[in-house]
Amino acid sequence: MSKTVAVIERTPLGYGVSFPDFPCAGTSAATVEEVLARAEVTLDAHIDAIMRYGGEMPNHMRSVEEIIADPDHRELIEEVGPVTYALVEVPLPSKSVRVNVTLDQSLLKRIDHKAKSLGESRSGFLAAAARARLSG
């Protein structure tokens, strides 16, 4: 699994975390431990949304040094003050694998009906359900 840089900043209510390689993803919590735990869940949900809605994934995960050298990041530091950097695992999508599962027939019909109403495939629906269960 790859890792991405998480930027942790102190806020009036605790700590916030953002990901320079995933600009729209971020979360907050009362403690550093909580914010790092939430960071992985947030990143997983963000990547799932990128995959589901056709967003763009970064070409590569930058190092802390590359982030620090980024002029946009330097502006952020000037704005918010001192920050801490951490590396967080990134659940990057990989090659699809065909699997054989056994499900109750009526459950499968309900899954197919719901997936169709959402404009998704059965596989996409089941993968999204699995991701939601794993993150929650």
Describe the structure in your own words.
This protein is 49% helix and 24% strand. It has two domains: 2-90, Double Stranded RNA Binding Domain, CATH 3.30.160.250; 105-135. The two termini are 20 Å apart. A hairpin with a 2-residue loop joins β1 and β2 (14-19). The chain has a four-stranded antiparallel sheet, with helices on one face. With 136 residues, the protein is α+β, with helices and mostly antiparallel strands.
Number of domains: 2
Could you give a short account of the major beta sheet? 4 strands, antiparallel
- Sheet with the most strands: spatial strand order: 3-2-1-4
**Count of individual helical segments:** 5
- Please tell me what the overall shape is: elongated
* Helix percent band: 40-55%
* Distance linking N and C termini: 20 Å
**Mean pLDDT figure:** 88
Order of helices and strands: EEEHHHEHH
Name the CATH architecture of the largest domain: 2-Layer Sandwich
Radius of gyration (Å): 18 Å
The assigned structural class equals alpha+beta
Number of strand elements: 4
Low-pLDDT runs: none
Proportion of residues in extended strands: 15-25%
Q: What is the CATH class of the largest domain?
A: Alpha Beta
CATH topology (level 3) name of the largest domain: Double Stranded RNA Binding Domain
